[in-house]
Amino acid sequence: MRFISIVFMAIVGVALAADKAPVVIGAGFPCKADGSAGYCASGFCLQLAHENQGVCK
Fold it and tell me: Which SUPFAM superfamilies match (predicted)?
């Protein structure tokens, strides 16, 4: 019974983790080059080294 409970919790955890789609940011909106704020629709975030955030191009 204990093994079944652990397996059930693992399956639920995997299902919840896989359900999140990445955030897509449009052109002209703020972004972070590392992708922590989402990903630019164009795939390019212009962020200079001394800035906290960049702009999707």
Answer: Gurmarin-like
